[in-house]
Amino acid sequence: QVQLVESGGGSVQAGGSLRLSCAASGSSGDMGWIRQSPGKEREGVAAINRDGMTRYADSVKGRFTISRDNAENLLYLQMNSLKPEDTAMYYCAASGVRSLGPPPLGATYYAYWGQGTQVTVSS
């Protein structure tokens, strides 16, 4: 069983930055950040395997950076140049399995989820 706890969300103006953190317990395997806005489908934002191989959604490439500290079992999402369309609930997710390459972004790949942290970007 994997437990995930996110922190670091908040409200910023467009162009600002936020850093999300996720503390994991158990064998997390591949991890990712998934977001969801009201009335919209869940969107995989970024994913990383235990070797540090990453995958990003086109909408965040060049602005967001996912990283992890395997020794401390921590996951991060550095978000720069934030836009109002980045406003969403952001969830930390873990698959519990390890892939050899960049993990998928699809939400159905991830079996374990945190409670979410809200990010609000104002124009």
SSE blueprint:
Layout (H helix, E strand, L loop, with lengths): L2 E5 L2 E4 L4 E8 L5 E6 L6 E6 L5 E3 L7 E6 L4 E6 L8 E7 L17 E2 L3 E6 L1
Parallel strand pairs: 2-11
Antiparallel strand pairs: 1-3, 3-8, 4-5, 4-9, 5-6, 7-8, 9-10, 9-11
Structure description:
This protein has about 120 residues and is an all-beta fold. The chain is built from no helices and 11 strands. The strands form 2 sheets. Strands 2, 4, 5, 6, 9, 10 and 11 form a 7-stranded mixed β-sheet that branches. Strands 1-3-8-7 form a 4-stranded antiparallel β-sheet, with no helix packed on it. The protein starts with a strand and ends with a strand.
Key attributes of the depicted protein:
single chain, 123 residues, mainly beta, 7-stranded mixed β-sheet, globular
Quick rundown:
The protein is mainly beta and 123 residues long. It has strands at 3-7, 10-13, 18-25, 31-36, 43-48, 54-56, 64-69, 74-79, 88-94, 112-113, 117-122.
The count of strands amounts to 11
Query: How far is it from the N-terminal to the C-terminal residue, by CA?
Result: 40 Å
Mean pLDDT: 97
Helix content: under 10%
Q: What global shape is seen? A: globular
Provide the β-strand percentage band: over 45%
Q: If helices are DSSP runs of H or I spanning 4 or more residues, what is the number of helices?
A: 0
Structural class: mainly beta
Largest sheet: 7 strands, mixed
Rounded to the nearest angstrom, the radius of gyration is 13 Å
SSE order, one letter for each helix or strand: EEEEEEEEEEE
Residue runs with pLDDT of under 50 for 5 or more positions: none
Oligomer: single chain
